[in-house]
Amino acid sequence: MTIALSIIILSTVVALGKLLGRCKIFGISLGVTWILFVGIVFAHFGYNPDSQLLHFMKEFGLILFVYSIGIQVGPSFFSNFRSGGVKLNLLATLLVLSGVGVTALLIRLTGIDGPTMVGVMSGAVTNTPGLGAAQQAFADATAGDPSGIALGYAVAYPLGVVGAIFSFILLKAIFYKETRPTPAPAAKAETADIRVKEIEQEALAHGRKFVHRKIIISKRKLNGKRLGSLEFEKFMGASITRIRRAGVEITAGPDTILQMGDVVTVVGAEESVDGMEKVLGNSVKKLDEPNLIAFFAGIALGCALGSIPIHIPGIPQSVKLGLAGGPLIVAILFGCFGPKFKIVTYTTTSANLMVREIGISLFLACVGLDAGTGFVDTIVNKGGFVWIAYGAIITVIPLLLCGFTGKVFMKLKYNTIIGVLAGASTNPPALAFAGEQDKNSDDAAVGYATVYPLTMFLRVLCAQLMVLMMV
Predict the structure, then answer these.
(1) Fold type of domain 3-179+290-470
(2) For residues 439 and 174, is the Cβ–Cβ distance under 8 A?
(3) I need a surface site. Which of 1, 124, 224, 406 has the fewest CB within 10 A?
């Protein structure tokens, strides 16, 4: 098959999958996952692209996907830990390990092929990078065909989405019968609010109009600067009180490191705020120009890191972070610490989303086209329906266990718990459901963002370790 025809098939699969992803059944959409199933249908009817092209596009798509996630969450990754994130990440870690434990128990009780069950586990928790890591580990260790892992993923994925939402509803019915929407807590911003009142009083004392304005930092010279060293209050008469970064709002302090793309809240007299706007830049046009040097340098370093063998006692094969774990870790480190070394890693939300969607779309299309040849036979003749049931068990039991733990032992609110569980399941549809429960609070979104990076790394590592211990 020619390269041109292979690209036509791949592009058609993505386009049709995205179109079907707009459809909802009982208010639930599988979204981008439809691309996987369209790819399976194409492969079932014999439309198989060039195998080498398919392999390259699958791996490159996975790299783009995980790297764009890391760049987005990196800037707020460690700050989330400092603001109560340790407790939430412990809960997320418990969910990951519970899923691994349930999977291992099912393998022992049923005798099903271990690598295939790892694929079922990845589908049950809707974790695509885990699937990629498991396939790569299997291929490296055995030089065999990892398509069986993809089949397990494909049959378990739909109930992975539905099962998570069902678990959230059950948790609310059991533990949160009287939960009512509450506004987002203001405790985090207490220091900033006190400072706002002080500045307002100073401005009023001098007969000046007090204002507050959101300004985007777009000047490169401010990237990596410590806020306290700039002494804005002394020289400009205005103060930065809050910073919104990577979708998370943090309270600004003297030790806060500014980054390109930060949306800062500036308070002070109107003329002072006008001056601050000139100093900070506030130019969206400048931010529209991506820094591709840092982007591709990060990918190169991530792939190199992912290729380093790590020897763990008791495991015959060396473990590698792989093309999912390596780029993810480097992206998080770049996003968090890059500004300290004057590295501009900022990309606009739309650009990041575009790269991420292209990456996951290519990966899922290739996985579907690779696994589709034997999909129907697996469902009809090889017990695929049983895999679906096992996937539902792997989805629901750990979620209920961790929901109970979060409520009883950690005293977490319902919106926070379901946001953490959605993040620990790397499940965007579940996050969408969580966000609908209380539109006046961003607790679910904050919980999701807080645990997502660590969870992604753990899921990639666990999937890989499980495969290596079984082959």
Answers:
(1) Na+/H+ antiporter like fold (1.20.1530)
(2) no
(3) 1
